[in-house]
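ugh ok so i messed up the first submission bc i forgot one of the chains. this is the corrected input, ALL of the components this time, i swear. 1688 residues overall. if the numbers dont match what u have on ur side tell me asap before i send this to the collaborators (the ones from the other lab, u know who)
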Amino acid sequence: MHLDHQRIAEENEAILSAHQTQWDCFRTVSSQSDSYWEECITRLSAMQIAIPSWALGTGGTRFGRFPGGGEPRNLEEKLADVGLLHALSGHAGAISLHIPWDIPDDTAAIRQQAEELGVVFDAVNSNTFQDQDGQLQSYKFGSLSHTDAAVRQLAVTHNQEVIDYGKALNSKSITVWLSDGANFPGQQNFRRAFERTLDSLQQIYDHLPNDWRMYVEYKPYEPNFYSTVIQDWGSSLLLASKLGPKAYSLVDLGHHLPNTNIEQIVSRLMMEGKLGGFHFNDSKYGDDDLTVGSIKPYQLFLIFVELLEGIASESFAWMIDASHNVKDPLEDLMQSVEAILIAYAQALLVDRQALNAAQEDNDVTLCQEIIQQAFRTDVRPLLAEVRRRNGAALHPILLFRKLQIRSALIEERGSKVLATGL
Amino acid sequence: MHLDHQRIAEENEAILSAHQTQWDCFRTVSSQSDSYWEECITRLSAMQIAIPSWALGTGGTRFGRFPGGGEPRNLEEKLADVGLLHALSGHAGAISLHIPWDIPDDTAAIRQQAEELGVVFDAVNSNTFQDQDGQLQSYKFGSLSHTDAAVRQLAVTHNQEVIDYGKALNSKSITVWLSDGANFPGQQNFRRAFERTLDSLQQIYDHLPNDWRMYVEYKPYEPNFYSTVIQDWGSSLLLASKLGPKAYSLVDLGHHLPNTNIEQIVSRLMMEGKLGGFHFNDSKYGDDDLTVGSIKPYQLFLIFVELLEGIASESFAWMIDASHNVKDPLEDLMQSVEAILIAYAQALLVDRQALNAAQEDNDVTLCQEIIQQAFRTDVRPLLAEVRRRNGAALHPILLFRKLQIRSALIEERGSKVLATGL
Amino acid sequence: MHLDHQRIAEENEAILSAHQTQWDCFRTVSSQSDSYWEECITRLSAMQIAIPSWALGTGGTRFGRFPGGGEPRNLEEKLADVGLLHALSGHAGAISLHIPWDIPDDTAAIRQQAEELGVVFDAVNSNTFQDQDGQLQSYKFGSLSHTDAAVRQLAVTHNQEVIDYGKALNSKSITVWLSDGANFPGQQNFRRAFERTLDSLQQIYDHLPNDWRMYVEYKPYEPNFYSTVIQDWGSSLLLASKLGPKAYSLVDLGHHLPNTNIEQIVSRLMMEGKLGGFHFNDSKYGDDDLTVGSIKPYQLFLIFVELLEGIASESFAWMIDASHNVKDPLEDLMQSVEAILIAYAQALLVDRQALNAAQEDNDVTLCQEIIQQAFRTDVRPLLAEVRRRNGAALHPILLFRKLQIRSALIEERGSKVLATGL
Amino acid sequence: MHLDHQRIAEENEAILSAHQTQWDCFRTVSSQSDSYWEECITRLSAMQIAIPSWALGTGGTRFGRFPGGGEPRNLEEKLADVGLLHALSGHAGAISLHIPWDIPDDTAAIRQQAEELGVVFDAVNSNTFQDQDGQLQSYKFGSLSHTDAAVRQLAVTHNQEVIDYGKALNSKSITVWLSDGANFPGQQNFRRAFERTLDSLQQIYDHLPNDWRMYVEYKPYEPNFYSTVIQDWGSSLLLASKLGPKAYSLVDLGHHLPNTNIEQIVSRLMMEGKLGGFHFNDSKYGDDDLTVGSIKPYQLFLIFVELLEGIASESFAWMIDASHNVKDPLEDLMQSVEAILIAYAQALLVDRQALNAAQEDNDVTLCQEIIQQAFRTDVRPLLAEVRRRNGAALHPILLFRKLQIRSALIEERGSKVLATGL
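and heres the new structure output, hopefully the right one now
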């Protein structure tokens, strides 16, 4: 299943005049010049979000999983799905692979397929939270932090191999999410577990090519329910600082305790020059992995407000990391991309100069007015215009449904297949 | 300080053409007919939110309080402040009194002042969480739930007197918020505390006029930090059901444990015919009493989506209950009113028929699209039009600042006064 | 693998004198009479906790599962495991089955096996949170609350069949845990979902034998992450009340929002005569399903303090519901049983008369002294004495290890088997 | 009111034989040698906990305060109260002052009084969260982080003066708790607020004598409800590291988000050599400031288990920081001291060697057995023996009541006084 820009442009034609009206009205009621909007469009066009290979199939919970049809059966089909997302949305020009599931049989062919789709290879991801068939040592009691040096070595070697796979695909970074921790008080010596983890990470770090980055993810709980080795941004920053300049912290929005002010963490990590990237999703309770923007869209906006303090000078890794349990994964990902772009666009609209002045004056009412003025703006016409100019669909989900893409995928792949790596 | 509609209309004039453009564009990009918008305007115009008398001064915390200037020194000045808010916003046509601070010296004069301002008397509020000077028994260990019958009687009598004060002002309801509870395990027998509370409430209930309502508020903690007698909607509903048809539950948005799905509680209470009213505020951690809509605007919208299932047939009490610690209280209240109206207007825009159909089909993607389509709409031109038609200010806060109302109030009342009841 | 009382008594012999010293000292330092302790022993001896069939194998999370060896492969082996637990601890004389996994091939044989082991059949459990192979309709979007009547019928029929299986084994109750809910705002109409659920439950209720009970469990989230149909005790109580006198609420300790005062909920449900039973486990973050007593032993004690207000007149269903991810399941269950008995024994030691007097006096210091006096008492000698008298092991886990029971089970069942139903 | 050791010894006499029986039994059932217990007694005897001057009167909330009688009216009476606590408990040999309330009129006299009571001066505490009468600039919008350099200077100078007051009393440390933060998104630039705070702290740090320490406290919220400048251990550690070797982080148990694993934070800070001290209290919801050990005694124990990894080589500042709203403050403090000592003693009992071995083996069941073996031990006879040897009361609270100390204090000080600084 492939979708070319020609076809999309034809489909856009039918709703172009409605869009033009909205886009005209949008600019009319704004107080900004055309050049202001052109700059916005340029910045928004550049926004590319990596799609993780594991998010292309239906996800589940410990209580069960209800797969849909037409899910990708291999790396080629995963790439094809990301290609569809990118063609429709214009902002999904990257894929993030999960090893061992996404080891390419033919690297050159995969690279060529990606190039044709306009998709690059973002961070590669290792997996030491499950045992693979025939694995000699078990990760039951940890991997990089394990008390047994042999298990640690297995996990280190796996991560080094993941880097090698990534190099072959021109990826430039590895994300390490560690499930290591303890379920019970007393199970683990906190300090020794941290020190062993640092030592293991150092060996992986030493294997990094010079132009690579390592992202150290943190998470307070799950699958361990008493403690985790890298439980918060403080521990992640300690590790990234001790490892060296190529190591950064990675923020997954769902990996925080209740009520955490995530946007402030973003600011702290940027201040220290150690914010590496993001895993976007949303949650109401824990690491719920819901569609980003579906529960707390204002928080997402506030995070982008912070990011824009540093986004000009820094390069961040953006990735969606959600679990699509009850929606079509591709539709869910289109909603995710849209929500991220909305938050980004609204954050761009914040009048920074006025905000700084109001902050200096402690004019709290005005600070809130300025911030909410941006959030309350309906930026969808702007985003549609960005898509139109980049050859993407004015209404990605509507077009996905109109073209019956899921049906075509089911026809091609079957209705009972399981995406690998889930 | 008084603000008449003539003056406001003149001020509106200068920005009327900009508003007209926004309002035209708003309707142009919508797919709705003029009659649709007229009905919206009618419904929105009818929305009146009660201002609690204690919110007109600067609030504080246990760590301190930093008062501003020009705060109202008595009931007349509190009414005047609400009159200003109503003149500016068009949606603040009610005041909620707190006894003992707001006992009128001259009831007839107060009623006349209120009538001239277009302000009615909403629910009256009792106070049994503090001891008043010369009070014979203490509420240190509770009031309506106290182990000592004499303390309970004192609290019951106080509540009955509050009803009497309210009758004189043509109020039609009393809100009972009970701080009773325990700080430590073992301090209180949960069951007997509940039974004593029910008995006390029954005596207050029996004192209610026939056309009155009693609102039973719940709160999980603070000022008691282990347990409260009416800790959640379940206990509130039990009490309201046992008391009788004039008793209802009252939902304060800040009175919930972390991550609570408040909109579902709203639905449950409506299903049982026992949702009585709302205290609007916002919070990130506990009962933070921040400006409603300043932290979780999407949650506020979702609550209104639920409310609209029943709002046609029911009559609810709407009240702001926030603590204005760092903003000018009147500006903060204008932001609160605006946030409530935005959420209400967005909820009106939800396409109910389409949503119901999508829900029946379990088309989760579409459900989210329908809901977010409404939330992402910038309804501010609609609300400005509502204000314009009702003689209120197109931009209340801008006008408040332009007219230097706070300076005038400071001149009139002084810069060092303390609002009573704080 | 079978363990008879003779063998256990022999093993106890070697450590009997140490126990006797501890038991003597325990009574010496207490201020209680022998008859007081005899009554305690009688009450403690009667405490029997049901073991759920799914807890006998290694559990896991959505991220993976690391099975141990010697796990039971069928109902007979599950019963045998519970028999071992009961022989060792003296308090595990019941099993709770999960249908469809535990449908007996030969009901009479199973009943006889259970009788020989001194094990009865506690509540039976239905499963409508997963699709079984060949199932015509899917529970992907709910079961008892589903929008499609055919799916609801499937779920109702399944529950009725579960009751029938239970009848054949002389079970007297069914526990309904419903995973139904929504992952996203707008996905589900809260009210209609509740009404459909009530209607479905009514059909199951009508199928109950006269001497049966139905337990309605509640849970705030997971596997649905925005809302659940039976989200808290309030909704559970509403359902149980509407259904009739045979319906009760069931409290699972892990099914609460952060910071919930669970012991107060216990009191409320008892006050309404609707507390039916308990699922014991512990948690630090969410429904972590850790060993009961491993994280918050004081909370467990406080719950028993409340329960003892009603335990004389009521009959409750006690069940462990935990997930043993990193410990030997049988060892974990022995730790669970011990923790429950400790909390129960400590609660028995609370001087109720003194506590009531201190509560009436609002002598908060004394209330805390009385409560903590009980909690700080080391009741392990008392519990060992209870076990000794009932023919169980003085030190169950030590004996389990000394007898190398797990090795024997691995030899018998293999090291790579998976417990069914996980 | 003064209590001498002679009098206490006499009172102990009457219950000495009961104690001796308990102490004998305690040792009999333990498997430890006499020398083991002697070492425990030595270590426990050395434990001294500072009492903050503000905890000697009745505390309150934003909703009110219900003072008791006989509260200390000045620094001399506060010292006298701490002297009483120390005489009764043997573990309260330090006081922590709060400036401006505790500025001594006669430093030499105060030092002499303290010396006679066996009480030393622990960390001094500054206050920049309230405005004092006549203060030229206001802390309404912050102190050390304020946008206005003049306000920052005021706060810096105040802290430097607090150090000077401390020097005169031979204190060796200052604790800085900063209430600075924001109530609303957008109010504050996170990065600049942090940088200004660091700059201000550096000026205070530069004023420290060579043998002093500075403790940097963190807190996620309250009195600011959107963000605080030093929100968590990560930010506190950043500041302490940037300031220099005399700066440390301070952990207040109530200053964490829901479900935080505090014991792990303790371990992290110790690993970095930056754990400076503790504020002990307990909480169920937020910074509830309840009696330590009254809600989560197991967590308190686990914290001491971690502390004992470093307690030999490090010197920590121990302080109670609670608010006594419904108990007699002195009784509450005696319960606090007892709870801390219990947790400490239980942590001493953990078999470290066995625990380390079990951790290395990933024998999770055994790890839990070892940890809980210690926690379940009733160490009260041991603590009573420690008190007896140090001339303190076998039962401090019983003796406090028997001697009617509160009545004597009311007689001396009056029943309507308010402790200063509350």
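quick check: The longest strand of chain C covers residues 247-252. that seems consistent at least. The longest helix of chain C spans residues 329-349.
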